[in-house]
User: What shape does this take?
Amino acid sequence: MTDNIETKQFKSLPVWKYSAGIIFVWSFIMLALLLWNYNNEKAATYEAAKIQARTAFEKDVLLRQWNADHGGLYAPITEKTQPNPYLDIPEREISTPSGIKLTKITPAFMTRQIHELALQMSGVRGHITSLKPIRPGNAPDQWESNALASFNKGIKEISSVEKMNGENYMRLMRPLLTDESCLKCHAKQGYRVGDIRGGISVSVPLSPYSEIEKSGIMTLFIINGIIWFAGVMGIGAGMFFLDHQVHHRLKAEEALRHKEKLQGIIEMSGAVCHELNQPLQAISGNAELLLMSIKKDDPAYKKIINIQHQADRMGKITKKLMGITSYKTKAYLNETIIDIDKAAK
Ligand code: HEC
Assistant: This one.
Protein backbone atom coordinates (compact mmCIF):
# COMPACT_ATOMS: atom_id res chain seq x y z
CA MET A 1 0.00 0.00 0.00
CA THR A 2 1.42 3.36 -0.99
CA ASP A 3 0.37 6.63 0.47
CA ASN A 4 0.72 8.91 -2.55
CA ILE A 5 -1.15 12.25 -2.60
CA GLU A 6 -1.33 12.38 -6.39
CA THR A 7 -3.23 9.12 -6.72
CA LYS A 8 -5.13 9.21 -3.45
CA GLN A 9 -8.94 9.46 -3.74
CA PHE A 10 -10.27 12.12 -1.39
CA LYS A 11 -13.69 11.72 0.09
CA SER A 12 -15.05 15.09 -0.98
CA LEU A 13 -18.62 16.54 -0.79
CA PRO A 14 -21.46 14.48 -2.38
CA VAL A 15 -21.76 17.36 -4.87
CA TRP A 16 -24.35 15.83 -7.16
CA LYS A 17 -26.62 14.92 -4.29
CA TYR A 18 -26.38 18.47 -2.93
CA SER A 19 -26.92 19.99 -6.37
CA ALA A 20 -29.96 17.81 -7.04
CA GLY A 21 -31.42 18.81 -3.68
CA ILE A 22 -30.89 22.52 -4.22
CA ILE A 23 -32.17 22.33 -7.81
CA PHE A 24 -35.26 20.50 -6.56
CA VAL A 25 -35.99 23.27 -4.02
CA TRP A 26 -35.24 25.93 -6.64
CA SER A 27 -37.60 24.29 -9.15
CA PHE A 28 -40.30 24.04 -6.52
CA ILE A 29 -40.00 27.75 -5.69
CA MET A 30 -40.08 28.69 -9.38
CA LEU A 31 -43.10 26.49 -10.00
CA ALA A 32 -44.96 28.02 -7.09
CA LEU A 33 -44.09 31.47 -8.40
CA LEU A 34 -45.27 30.53 -11.87
CA LEU A 35 -48.59 29.26 -10.54
CA TRP A 36 -49.03 32.37 -8.47
CA ASN A 37 -48.31 34.64 -11.45
CA TYR A 38 -50.56 32.52 -13.65
CA ASN A 39 -53.45 32.93 -11.23
CA ASN A 40 -52.76 36.66 -10.99
CA GLU A 41 -52.84 36.91 -14.77
CA LYS A 42 -56.19 35.11 -14.86
CA ALA A 43 -57.58 37.25 -12.07
CA ALA A 44 -56.43 40.41 -13.88
CA THR A 45 -58.24 39.30 -17.06
CA TYR A 46 -61.45 38.70 -15.14
CA GLU A 47 -61.10 42.00 -13.31
CA ALA A 48 -60.72 43.86 -16.62
CA ALA A 49 -63.86 42.17 -18.00
CA LYS A 50 -65.71 43.02 -14.79
CA ILE A 51 -64.74 46.67 -15.12
CA GLN A 52 -66.15 46.71 -18.64
CA ALA A 53 -69.39 45.10 -17.42
CA ARG A 54 -69.73 47.57 -14.53
CA THR A 55 -69.18 50.50 -16.87
CA ALA A 56 -71.96 49.20 -19.14
CA PHE A 57 -74.27 48.74 -16.15
CA GLU A 58 -73.59 52.23 -14.84
CA LYS A 59 -74.22 53.75 -18.26
CA ASP A 60 -77.56 51.90 -18.45
CA VAL A 61 -78.60 53.18 -15.04
CA LEU A 62 -77.63 56.72 -15.99
CA LEU A 63 -79.66 56.67 -19.22
CA ARG A 64 -82.60 55.06 -17.46
CA GLN A 65 -82.51 57.66 -14.73
CA TRP A 66 -82.60 60.45 -17.29
CA ASN A 67 -85.63 58.79 -18.93
CA ALA A 68 -87.41 58.08 -15.62
CA ASP A 69 -86.82 61.65 -14.42
CA HIS A 70 -88.96 62.69 -17.39
CA GLY A 71 -91.58 60.07 -16.54
CA GLY A 72 -90.82 58.37 -19.83
CA LEU A 73 -90.15 60.04 -23.20
CA TYR A 74 -92.13 60.19 -26.44
CA ALA A 75 -90.76 58.82 -29.70
CA PRO A 76 -92.29 58.40 -33.17
CA ILE A 77 -94.09 55.08 -33.67
CA THR A 78 -92.13 52.93 -36.12
CA GLU A 79 -92.01 49.26 -36.96
CA LYS A 80 -89.45 48.75 -34.17
CA THR A 81 -90.96 51.18 -31.73
CA GLN A 82 -94.52 50.07 -31.20
CA PRO A 83 -96.80 51.24 -28.33
CA ASN A 84 -95.89 49.38 -25.12
CA PRO A 85 -98.81 47.03 -24.29
CA TYR A 86 -97.67 46.80 -20.64
CA LEU A 87 -97.73 50.55 -20.13
CA ASP A 88 -101.07 51.43 -18.66
CA ILE A 89 -101.14 55.25 -18.45
CA PRO A 90 -103.20 57.99 -20.01
CA GLU A 91 -101.69 59.54 -23.17
CA ARG A 92 -99.57 56.52 -23.97
CA GLU A 93 -99.97 57.63 -27.60
CA ILE A 94 -100.22 61.22 -28.70
CA SER A 95 -100.12 63.10 -32.01
CA THR A 96 -98.11 66.19 -32.87
CA PRO A 97 -100.04 69.15 -34.33
CA SER A 98 -98.87 68.01 -37.78
CA GLY A 99 -100.20 64.49 -37.14
CA ILE A 100 -97.05 62.48 -36.37
CA LYS A 101 -97.96 59.65 -33.96
CA LEU A 102 -95.77 59.40 -30.82
CA THR A 103 -95.67 56.74 -28.09
CA LYS A 104 -94.20 56.75 -24.62
CA ILE A 105 -90.90 54.98 -24.20
CA THR A 106 -90.40 53.54 -20.69
CA PRO A 107 -86.87 53.32 -19.23
CA ALA A 108 -87.11 49.51 -19.56
CA PHE A 109 -88.09 49.67 -23.22
CA MET A 110 -85.29 52.17 -23.92
CA THR A 111 -82.84 49.91 -22.10
CA ARG A 112 -83.90 46.95 -24.25
CA GLN A 113 -83.38 48.93 -27.44
CA ILE A 114 -79.97 50.17 -26.28
CA HIS A 115 -78.99 46.59 -25.36
CA GLU A 116 -79.85 45.46 -28.87
CA LEU A 117 -77.58 48.14 -30.32
CA ALA A 118 -74.79 47.27 -27.88
CA LEU A 119 -74.97 43.59 -28.81
CA GLN A 120 -74.51 44.45 -32.49
CA MET A 121 -71.70 46.89 -31.75
CA SER A 122 -69.53 45.09 -29.19
CA GLY A 123 -71.03 41.67 -28.48
CA VAL A 124 -71.82 42.73 -24.91
CA ARG A 125 -75.19 41.35 -23.82
CA GLY A 126 -77.42 43.34 -21.50
CA HIS A 127 -80.66 42.15 -19.95
CA ILE A 128 -83.12 44.04 -17.76
CA THR A 129 -85.09 41.66 -15.60
CA SER A 130 -87.02 41.13 -12.38
CA LEU A 131 -88.32 38.29 -10.21
CA LYS A 132 -91.80 39.83 -10.77
CA PRO A 133 -91.65 40.90 -14.42
CA ILE A 134 -94.48 42.99 -15.84
CA ARG A 135 -93.45 41.91 -19.30
CA PRO A 136 -93.04 38.09 -19.42
CA GLY A 137 -90.18 38.53 -21.91
CA ASN A 138 -88.18 40.23 -19.16
CA ALA A 139 -88.18 37.06 -17.02
CA PRO A 140 -84.77 36.10 -15.59
CA ASP A 141 -82.76 33.02 -16.55
CA GLN A 142 -81.52 30.69 -13.81
CA TRP A 143 -78.29 32.59 -13.17
CA GLU A 144 -80.17 35.91 -13.02
CA SER A 145 -82.86 34.67 -10.65
CA ASN A 146 -80.14 33.33 -8.30
CA ALA A 147 -78.46 36.73 -8.43
CA LEU A 148 -81.76 38.55 -7.76
CA ALA A 149 -82.36 36.26 -4.79
CA SER A 150 -78.93 37.22 -3.37
CA PHE A 151 -79.70 40.94 -3.83
CA ASN A 152 -82.72 40.43 -1.59
CA LYS A 153 -80.25 39.15 1.05
CA GLY A 154 -78.21 42.34 0.78
CA ILE A 155 -75.49 41.36 -1.70
CA LYS A 156 -74.63 44.31 -3.98
CA GLU A 157 -73.05 42.59 -6.98
CA ILE A 158 -72.81 39.10 -8.43
CA SER A 159 -70.30 38.05 -11.08
CA SER A 160 -68.93 34.83 -12.52
CA VAL A 161 -67.54 33.30 -15.69
CA GLU A 162 -70.31 31.43 -17.54
CA LYS A 163 -70.59 29.55 -20.83
CA MET A 164 -73.33 30.88 -23.10
CA ASN A 165 -73.84 29.58 -26.67
CA GLY A 166 -70.46 27.81 -26.42
CA GLU A 167 -68.61 31.02 -25.54
CA ASN A 168 -67.15 32.19 -22.24
CA TYR A 169 -68.65 35.34 -20.77
CA MET A 170 -68.01 37.39 -17.68
CA ARG A 171 -71.50 37.77 -16.29
CA LEU A 172 -72.09 40.59 -13.85
CA MET A 173 -75.34 41.76 -12.30
CA ARG A 174 -76.38 44.56 -9.98
CA PRO A 175 -79.83 45.47 -8.64
CA LEU A 176 -82.03 48.33 -9.82
CA LEU A 177 -83.48 50.14 -6.85
CA THR A 178 -86.83 51.86 -6.79
CA ASP A 179 -86.72 55.61 -6.33
CA GLU A 180 -89.30 58.39 -6.52
CA SER A 181 -89.14 58.60 -10.31
CA CYS A 182 -90.05 54.89 -10.70
CA LEU A 183 -93.20 55.13 -8.62
CA LYS A 184 -95.02 57.02 -11.39
CA CYS A 185 -95.48 53.68 -13.12
CA HIS A 186 -94.44 51.02 -10.56
CA ALA A 187 -96.31 52.22 -7.42
CA LYS A 188 -99.40 50.26 -8.38
CA GLN A 189 -97.45 47.00 -8.14
CA GLY A 190 -96.79 47.82 -4.51
CA TYR A 191 -93.16 48.99 -4.81
CA ARG A 192 -91.83 51.59 -2.42
CA VAL A 193 -88.69 53.74 -2.51
CA GLY A 194 -85.61 51.63 -1.74
CA ASP A 195 -87.14 48.31 -2.90
CA ILE A 196 -85.25 46.16 -5.35
CA ARG A 197 -87.33 46.46 -8.55
CA GLY A 198 -85.10 44.07 -10.47
CA GLY A 199 -81.68 44.24 -12.04
CA ILE A 200 -79.58 44.46 -15.16
CA SER A 201 -77.22 41.66 -16.06
CA VAL A 202 -74.28 42.38 -18.36
CA SER A 203 -72.38 39.59 -20.15
CA VAL A 204 -68.99 40.55 -21.57
CA PRO A 205 -67.45 38.06 -24.04
CA LEU A 206 -64.06 36.92 -22.73
CA SER A 207 -62.49 36.02 -26.08
CA PRO A 208 -60.82 39.43 -26.70
CA TYR A 209 -59.40 39.28 -23.18
CA SER A 210 -58.25 35.70 -23.65
CA GLU A 211 -56.05 36.79 -26.55
CA ILE A 212 -54.25 39.32 -24.35
CA GLU A 213 -54.13 36.81 -21.51
CA LYS A 214 -52.59 34.15 -23.75
CA SER A 215 -49.68 36.34 -24.75
CA GLY A 216 -49.25 37.42 -21.12
CA ILE A 217 -49.12 33.81 -19.98
CA MET A 218 -46.71 32.92 -22.77
CA THR A 219 -44.35 35.70 -21.66
CA LEU A 220 -44.72 34.50 -18.10
CA PHE A 221 -43.69 30.95 -19.03
CA ILE A 222 -40.72 32.13 -21.09
CA ILE A 223 -39.41 34.51 -18.39
CA ASN A 224 -39.91 31.95 -15.62
CA GLY A 225 -38.22 29.31 -17.80
CA ILE A 226 -35.20 31.53 -18.42
CA ILE A 227 -34.86 32.41 -14.72
CA TRP A 228 -35.21 28.75 -13.74
CA PHE A 229 -32.58 27.67 -16.26
CA ALA A 230 -30.17 30.42 -15.21
CA GLY A 231 -30.68 29.32 -11.59
CA VAL A 232 -29.95 25.68 -12.40
CA MET A 233 -26.79 26.68 -14.28
CA GLY A 234 -25.73 28.88 -11.37
CA ILE A 235 -26.30 26.13 -8.82
CA GLY A 236 -24.36 23.65 -10.98
CA ALA A 237 -21.45 26.04 -11.46
CA GLY A 238 -21.42 26.99 -7.77
CA MET A 239 -21.36 23.39 -6.61
CA PHE A 240 -18.67 22.50 -9.13
CA PHE A 241 -16.52 25.38 -7.89
CA LEU A 242 -17.12 24.46 -4.25
CA ASP A 243 -16.18 20.85 -4.90
CA HIS A 244 -13.03 21.96 -6.64
CA GLN A 245 -12.06 24.22 -3.73
CA VAL A 246 -12.72 21.56 -1.11
CA HIS A 247 -10.76 18.99 -3.06
CA HIS A 248 -7.87 21.38 -3.39
CA ARG A 249 -7.91 22.11 0.30
CA LEU A 250 -8.02 18.47 1.35
CA LYS A 251 -5.09 17.79 -0.89
CA ALA A 252 -3.09 20.68 0.57
CA GLU A 253 -3.87 19.53 4.11
CA GLU A 254 -2.75 16.01 3.30
CA ALA A 255 0.44 17.33 1.75
CA LEU A 256 1.14 19.35 4.88
CA ARG A 257 0.56 16.31 7.06
CA HIS A 258 2.99 14.28 4.96
CA LYS A 259 5.56 17.05 5.19
CA GLU A 260 5.28 17.14 8.95
CA LYS A 261 5.54 13.37 9.21
CA LEU A 262 8.52 13.36 6.89
CA GLN A 263 10.24 15.99 9.02
CA GLY A 264 9.77 13.78 12.06
CA ILE A 265 11.07 10.75 10.23
CA ILE A 266 14.15 12.60 8.98
CA GLU A 267 14.93 13.83 12.47
CA MET A 268 14.41 10.40 13.95
CA SER A 269 16.44 8.58 11.35
CA GLY A 270 19.24 11.16 11.66
CA ALA A 271 19.36 10.53 15.40
CA VAL A 272 19.30 6.75 14.92
CA CYS A 273 22.20 6.90 12.46
CA HIS A 274 24.16 9.15 14.69
CA GLU A 275 23.67 6.91 17.70
CA LEU A 276 24.25 3.63 15.81
CA ASN A 277 27.38 4.69 13.95
CA GLN A 278 29.75 4.54 16.88
CA PRO A 279 28.69 1.10 18.18
CA LEU A 280 28.77 -0.18 14.62
CA GLN A 281 32.25 1.13 14.08
CA ALA A 282 33.29 -0.41 17.36
CA ILE A 283 31.84 -3.79 16.27
CA SER A 284 33.61 -3.56 12.87
CA GLY A 285 36.89 -2.44 14.41
CA ASN A 286 36.87 -5.16 17.03
CA ALA A 287 35.98 -7.79 14.45
CA GLU A 288 38.91 -6.57 12.35
CA LEU A 289 41.29 -6.90 15.29
CA LEU A 290 39.93 -10.39 16.09
CA LEU A 291 40.49 -11.50 12.50
CA MET A 292 44.09 -10.38 12.65
CA SER A 293 44.69 -12.38 15.83
CA ILE A 294 43.39 -15.74 14.56
CA LYS A 295 44.19 -18.03 11.68
CA LYS A 296 41.95 -18.51 8.68
CA ASP A 297 41.27 -22.15 9.49
CA ASP A 298 40.12 -21.23 12.97
CA PRO A 299 36.48 -22.29 13.39
CA ALA A 300 35.67 -18.74 14.67
CA TYR A 301 37.12 -17.06 11.58
CA LYS A 302 33.98 -17.52 9.42
CA LYS A 303 31.73 -16.36 12.23
CA ILE A 304 33.74 -13.18 12.72
CA ILE A 305 33.56 -12.52 8.95
CA ASN A 306 29.78 -12.88 9.30
CA ILE A 307 29.70 -10.40 12.21
CA GLN A 308 31.64 -7.96 10.04
CA HIS A 309 29.27 -8.59 7.18
CA GLN A 310 26.17 -7.90 9.29
CA ALA A 311 27.72 -4.71 10.71
CA ASP A 312 28.33 -3.53 7.11
CA ARG A 313 24.68 -4.24 6.28
CA MET A 314 23.59 -2.20 9.24
CA GLY A 315 25.91 0.59 8.10
CA LYS A 316 24.21 0.52 4.69
CA ILE A 317 20.79 0.66 6.34
CA THR A 318 21.78 3.71 8.38
CA LYS A 319 23.05 5.37 5.15
CA LYS A 320 19.69 4.66 3.57
CA LEU A 321 17.95 6.13 6.61
CA MET A 322 19.98 9.30 6.14
CA GLY A 323 18.81 9.44 2.54
CA ILE A 324 15.04 9.53 3.23
CA THR A 325 13.50 12.35 1.20
CA SER A 326 9.84 11.42 0.88
CA TYR A 327 7.01 9.88 2.85
CA LYS A 328 6.31 6.38 1.53
CA THR A 329 4.79 3.55 3.53
CA LYS A 330 4.15 -0.15 3.24
CA ALA A 331 2.11 -2.67 5.14
CA TYR A 332 3.87 -4.67 7.81
CA LEU A 333 1.92 -7.18 9.85
CA ASN A 334 -1.10 -5.18 10.93
CA GLU A 335 0.62 -1.82 10.75
CA THR A 336 1.77 0.67 8.21
CA ILE A 337 5.51 1.32 8.34
CA ILE A 338 7.91 3.48 6.35
CA ASP A 339 9.09 1.82 3.15
CA ILE A 340 12.75 2.75 3.50
CA ASP A 341 13.73 1.57 0.01
CA LYS A 342 11.14 3.77 -1.70
CA ALA A 343 11.38 6.69 0.72
CA ALA A 344 15.13 7.03 0.26
CA LYS A 345 15.04 7.22 -3.54
C1 HEC B 1 -93.08 55.53 -17.60
C2 HEC B 1 -93.36 54.45 -16.74
C3 HEC B 1 -92.23 53.80 -16.06
C4 HEC B 1 -91.25 54.39 -15.30
C5 HEC B 1 -91.05 55.83 -14.93
C6 HEC B 1 -90.40 53.30 -14.84
N1 HEC B 1 -90.84 52.13 -15.36
FE1 HEC B 1 -89.98 50.35 -15.12
N2 HEC B 1 -91.22 49.52 -16.43
C7 HEC B 1 -92.35 50.12 -16.94
C8 HEC B 1 -93.07 49.19 -17.78
C9 HEC B 1 -94.34 49.44 -18.50
C10 HEC B 1 -92.33 47.98 -17.75
C11 HEC B 1 -92.62 46.65 -18.43
C12 HEC B 1 -92.56 46.66 -19.92
C13 HEC B 1 -91.22 46.95 -20.52
O1 HEC B 1 -90.32 46.14 -20.35
O2 HEC B 1 -91.17 47.97 -21.17
C14 HEC B 1 -91.19 48.24 -16.91
C15 HEC B 1 -90.16 47.29 -16.64
C16 HEC B 1 -89.21 47.46 -15.70
C17 HEC B 1 -88.24 46.45 -15.38
C18 HEC B 1 -88.08 45.11 -16.04
C19 HEC B 1 -88.84 44.00 -15.40
C20 HEC B 1 -90.31 43.93 -15.67
O3 HEC B 1 -91.04 44.21 -14.69
O4 HEC B 1 -90.71 43.64 -16.79
C21 HEC B 1 -87.49 46.96 -14.38
C22 HEC B 1 -86.34 46.25 -13.65
C23 HEC B 1 -87.94 48.30 -14.12
N3 HEC B 1 -88.96 48.59 -14.93
C24 HEC B 1 -87.35 49.13 -13.17
C25 HEC B 1 -87.69 50.46 -13.11
C26 HEC B 1 -86.99 51.41 -12.23
C27 HEC B 1 -85.89 51.04 -11.24
C28 HEC B 1 -87.52 52.63 -12.49
C29 HEC B 1 -87.08 53.93 -11.85
C30 HEC B 1 -85.71 54.34 -12.04
C31 HEC B 1 -88.55 52.46 -13.50
N4 HEC B 1 -88.63 51.16 -13.85
C32 HEC B 1 -89.26 53.51 -14.01
C33 HEC B 1 -92.70 51.41 -16.75
C34 HEC B 1 -91.93 52.36 -16.10
